[in-house]
Amino acid sequence: MGGKTVFKRSAVQSNIVAHIAPARPGSGPPSRDITPVVTSFSQLRVVKEAGSTGADVMKKVAGDYSPLSYLQAAICFHLLNTHPGMESNSVIDESYVEVLRSFDLWPFGDIARSLNPLFFRDSRGHPVVVFFTYHRAARETIVKHVHRFNREGYSLKYGSRTWAVHNRSQLSLKRIK
Length: 177
Fold this sequence. Notes:
Number of domains: 1
Largest sheet: 6 strands, antiparallel
Strand content: 25-35%
Structural class: alpha+beta
Distance between the termini: 14 Å
């Protein structure tokens, strides 16, 4: 793993106001216009290439290949695809955890690893973005999201796993390799 870039939670928010409401998953045909979603991120733009559904939609996304552009592309991927409960405001970082702690809303106690969004290149040179989301639905959970991009472009492989679960009086942390 090469040099890591650590982000704050605010980096995952779209930073350009789109004049057209973005298409939500399940609304309209699979070949919907992705421009409003993609252009709401400063480091990304739409290119005319093949692909319109699933991970293939990311073939239409281009950027400046900076760590921030990959983080924005990861969030863009979630906005363009159906990922229940995944919103950019559910991404957490250390400062957000401190705010929750100050209001006694953080049930997980001290966690040894950083929960900040992270960018790095793996041993094969692929850009990787990792972030955690916090969900308070039926049970409080932390989910780890891993996005491994192709060396060229913004096509990616995505994986997620429940990292911690809090069931009233029980706390379970799962180690993920």
